[in-house]
Design goal:
Strands 3, 4, 5, 6, 7 and 8 form a six-stranded antiparallel β-sheet that branches. A six-stranded mixed β-sheet has the order 10-11-12-15-16-19, with helices on both faces. Strands 1, 13, 14, 17 and 18 form a five-stranded antiparallel β-sheet that branches. It is of the alpha+beta class. Helix content is 37%, strand content 27%. The protein has two domains: 105-192, Roll (Pdz3 Domain); 196-384, 2-enoyl-CoA Hydratase, Chain A, domain 1 (Alpha-Beta Complex), CATH 3.90.226. The chain is built from ten helices and 19 strands. Helix 8 (248-255) packs parallel to helix 9 (300-310).
C-alpha cells in the first residue's frame, strides 16, 4: 500500500532542499568570488608598482622619454616574462617584416647574416636575384659599417634595423673581404626567396632541399616534385638540414601529395581540446624516400620528417633534431603590432610529441670530414638498396 505524507511535511522537505542548495551555491560562489578578488588584488598590486615606477621616472629621469619606444619595450618585457623562447611581442615594423618573411618575399638587400667572432656581421647567405647578388657580394664578407655606423659598436640587432628599410630606399655598406674594405651602395627592393632546390641524381634519385616553409614553398615544392617524377625519379631524398620550420599550412600542402588519406598531426590546447592540424587526401606518391636532418632541423621541418617516417614512407638520416613541438598563434592589434604566443603542443598521428627532445634518426650519422657529406651519401645508399 502507498504511504502518503502530509502537505506540511512536503513543504518542509522542499524548504530544506532549497536551503541546502542555497548554502552550497553560496559557498562555491563565495569561494570563486574570493579567488577572483585575490587575483584582482594581486594584479592591482603589480600594476600599482608599475605606476609607481612610471611616476618616479617621469619626475626624476634625467633625459628624454620616447613614448612609443617605452611602450614597445614594456610590452616586450611582459611577454619575455613568460620565459617562453617562442612567444614574442612585435612592433608594427617587426610584424610587417614577419609577414613579408612568411610570404617568402623580403624587402632589403637579399642577405642572411650572423654575428662573426670578430664582433662584426658576417654574410651567411646571399639570395638569388637580389641587390646583394647583383653587386657581387659573397658569403663570409664582413659588414663593417651601415650608413657610416660601425656594426661592431652597435651590435647585430641595431645593425639589422639599419640595413632593413622600405622598397626603393638606399643604404651604404662598408664590406671587408680579405682585409680590404670596399664601399657599396644599394637600393632596397623586394626579393623572392627560393625555399626549394632540386636536381636529378644518378640512378634516378630525385633530390629536393627545403630551406623553410613559406607561403610560396608549396608551389616551388610541387613544381620540383612533378618535374622530378616526370623525368623518371624512382626514389626521393628530402634534405631538411638547417630548416628551422615555418608555416604549418605550407607544410600540409607539401606533405599532402606524399601521404595516404588521413589525419597526419594534431594539436592539444590549454583547455585540453585536440584539433586536427595536418591532414592528407587520398592521392599518394608510393616510391622509396629518405629524409636528411641535423640539429638545426626544427618545428615544421621536424613534423615533415616525423610524418613521413610514421606513415612508413621514409627513413631519417643525420643527427638529433632541435625538438620544437609547440605551436604559436599570431594575434594582430589595430595599431599594426602583434603578439606571437605559444598556444598548443603538437604531434604526429602515431608518435608522442618531440618537444624538447627532437627526432632520433634511423641512421645517426655526423658529417665529420670537410668536403665529405656522409649524411647525403648514406641517404643515397639507403635508396639504392631498396
Amino acid at each position: 500500500m502507498n504511504k502518503k505524507i502530509s502537505l506540511g511535511l512536503a513543504l518542509s522537505l522542499i524548504a530544506v532542499s532549497i536551503a541546502v542548495t542555497f548554502i552550497l551555491t553560496s559557498f562555491f560562489s563565495l569561494q570563486s568570488f574570493n579567488e577572483k578578488v585575490a587575483d584582482v588584488n594581486e594584479k592591482a598590486k603589480k600594476y600599482s608598482d608599475l605606476q609607481a615606477i612610471d611616476t618616479i621616472i617621469r619626475n626624476d629621469f634625467f633625459g628624454e622619454i620616447d613614448e612609443q619606444y617605452l611602450e614597445d619595450k614594456m610590452l616586450k618585457g611582459y611577454v619575455s616574462g613568460l620565459d617562453d623562447k617562442y612567444s614574442r611581442y612585435l612592433t608594427a615594423e617587426e610584424y610587417l617584416n614577419e609577414k613579408n618573411e612568411n610570404s617568402g618575399t623580403l624587402v632589403g638587400l637579399g642577405i642572411a647574416v650572423e654575428e662573426d667572432e670578430s664582433g662584426y656581421i658576417r654574410i651567411a647567405e646571399i639570395y638569388n636575384s637580389s641587390p646583394a647578388s647583383d653587386s657581387g657580394l659573397m658569403e663570409d664578407d664582413l659588414i663593417i659599417t651601415v650608413d657610416g655606423v660601425n656594426t661592431k659598436q652597435i651590435g647585430i640587432d641595431n645593425a639589422l634595423n639599419l640595413i632593413k628599410g622600405t622598397e626603393g630606399s638606399d643604404v651604404s655598406l662598408t664590406i671587408r673581404r680579405n682585409g680590404v674594405d670596399t664601399e657599396y651602395k644599394f637600393t632596397r627592393r623586394a626579393v623572392t626567396l627560393d625555399t626549394v632546390e632540386s636536381e636529378m641524381l644518378g640512378n634516378y634519385i630525385g633530390y629536393i632541399k627545403i630551406s623553410g616553409f613559406k607561403e610560396n614553398t608549396p608551389d616551388q615544392f610541387i613544381d620540383a616534385l612533378e618535374r622530378l617524377t616526370a623525368n623518371g625519379a624512382k626514389s626521393l631524398i628530402f634534405d631538411l638540414r638547417d630548416n628551422g620550420g615555418g608555416l604549418v599550412s605550407a607544410l600540409e600542402k607539401c606533405l599532402d601529395p606524399l601521404l595516404p588519406e588521413g589525419i597526419v598531426a594534431t594539436a592539444e590546447y590549454k583547455d585540453g581540446s585536440v584539433k586536427t592540424l595536418v591532414q592528407s587526401d587520398s592521392s599518394e606518391l608510393d616510391i622509396p624516400m629518405a629524409v636528411i636532418v641535423n640539429e638545426k632541423t626544427a618545428s615544421a621541418a621536424e613534423l615533415f620528417s616525423a610524418s613521413l617516417r610514421d606513415f612508413g614512407k621514409a627513413s631519417i638520416v643525420g643527427t638529433q633534431t632541435y625538438g620544437k613541438g609547440v605551436m604559436q598563434d599570431i594575434r594582430e592589434f589595430s595599431n599594426g603590432t602583434a603578439l606571437i604566443l605559444t598556444v598548443a603542443e603538437y604531434k604526429t598521428a602515431f608518435s608522442p610529441c618531440y618537444n624538447g627532445i627532437g627526432l632520433t634518426p634511423d641512421y645517426p650519422i655526423e658529417n665529420k670530414n670537410d668536403g665529405i657529406d656522409a649524411q647525403y651519401n648514406k641517404a643515397v645508399e639507403i635508396l639504392l638498396s631498396t
